Amino acid sequence: MEVLALTLVTLMALLPPTQPCSSEMNKVKDLLEVNCTGQALSTVPPDLPADTGILLLSDNRLESLSTTAFLSLTQLQDIDLANNGLVALHTGALLLSLKELTLSHNALSALPILEGLPALTHLAVAHNSLETLAPGAFRTVPQLQNLDLRGNKMQQLPQEAFAGLKALKELDLSDNLLKELPKELLQDLQKLETLWLSGNQLQTLPTDFFPKGHLFMYVFLTENPWHCDCDLHYLQTWIQKNADIVYQPERGLEETKVEVAPEKVLCHSPAEHRQKPIIRFKLNCSIMEDVDEEGGDEYNYGEETTEKATMSTFPPHPYIPKEHTTMPCAITSSCLPTLTTTRSPLTRPSLSTSCTPTLSPNTLLVMLTSIRTPST
Fold this sequence. Notes:
There is one protein chain. By secondary structure, the protein is mostly beta strands. The protein has a domain at 20-129: Ribonuclease Inhibitor (Leucine-rich repeat, LRR (right-handed beta-alpha superhelix)). The chain is 6% helix and 19% strand. The protein has 2 helices and 19 strands. The protein has a 13-stranded mixed beta sheet with strand order 1-2-3-5-7-8-9-10-11-12-14-15-17, with no helix packed on it. The protein has a two-stranded parallel sheet with strand order 4-6. It has a two-stranded parallel ribbon with strand order 13-16. Strand 14 (246-251) and strand 15 form a beta hairpin. The longest helix has 13 residues, at 2-14. The two termini are 45 Å apart.
């Protein structure tokens, strides 16, 4: 017995000391914010204040978790569970006030069943191991406005993957392995403003992929191996008609820049047309009206169709790199977006616009930050 007791004492001495979670009022949201970041926790602390509104649990060891652990926190609106090695999240407990849930940088191979979260508006599951989504996976969270699925392993999606998300404004599918997308994927997304498809394996998009009459604010299409043949006619035409909303992200270690850059959506194949802008590529197809009458070069080296917007930058996030969010107004030549950075943990920067009729179309500045960025 003495040997066993001595062993236990030794093991306890080797464990890092548990620090109590700090708490303070979040001045932006007027909620009590409890910070339990980086304390090697394997379970949710049982003695959290009953009026906790924002709970930061990132950088711990919560590999398996049930939302029943939060039932006593009736005012809880934001939970950050990033960087926990999370492999399983069990939902079902009714959390009526929860609006934001961050699950990024974990080890989830399947999307948790989203039950008991009727008020959820922001969901970040970036940088996990998701391979696909179930049809109607988000029907239980119809209030969702921002969905971040960046940096997973998805190769394909069912046509009803986002069914029921009529309030969704931003959808990030960038940096996955998507090879093709179903024609009906966006049909239910009536309020979608920002769509990220950059950094996938897309070679073409089906005809009428973008719903007719739908007005986007930002669409990201770069870093895909687009195959420039007659099957790409639909995408080329769409880019030509919507050149002012086709953006390019440039991610760096310290900042992320975005700019209006339809000419940066490039052909990857066939080899003779590699690195040529899709927007000015001339296809030798009967459906094309502007085929070179003299049968000359298939590529138009004339003036660029769209002027580049001035690059803008935004700061990185300590554990979720290079993020972005939507702008709440239409892009016009008379609107100049500005960044509002009154942010505390799990409150995201918002964009407000000040419209001035004197601005020229070539002075659009754009700053994008993301729902995915719970700050420290």
